[in-house]
Design a protein that fits this description.
single chain, 113 residues, 7-stranded mixed β-sheet, 50% strand
Length: 113
């Protein structure tokens, strides 16, 4: 299984980013996809999850109404649209397949004036 995230960048507060997660080596449409984040001095924090094939979506309270998770099963890709970014959203974001305990290398998001 290979998971590759991209889309991280440095933005100002209030800005937006879309993270992508391309997965290979399995039948993508069969698996829950999860985004989580980790920043220095903090533990791993769940961000969002989407069930297969286009199922139930769940968000952390801290991102509800600002972040949107989606998936394109034909492209083996999941997305995390992040709007109205705040300084506390700065972290390395990981895409993961929880049932396989697999994750990507992460993509870094910085939020500063």
């Amino acid at each position: 299984v290979q998971i590759v995230e991209s889309g991280g960048a440095s933005v100002q507060p209030g800005g937006s980013l879309r993270l992508s997660c391309v997965v290979s080596g399995l039948i993508f449409r069969q698996y829950n996809i999860e985004w989580y984040r980790q920043s220095p001095g903090k533990g791993r924090e769940f961000v969002a999850r989407i069930a297969p094939p286009y199922g139930t979506i769940r968000y952390a309270d801290s991102v509800t109404g600002r972040f949107w998770i989606s998936r394109d099963n034909d492209k083996n890709t999941a997305y995390l649209q992040m709007n109205n970014l705040k300084s506390e959203d700065a972290a390395v974001y990981y895409c993961a397949i929880p049932s396989l305990d697999e994750r990507g290398q992460g993509t870094s998001v910085a939020v500063s004036p």
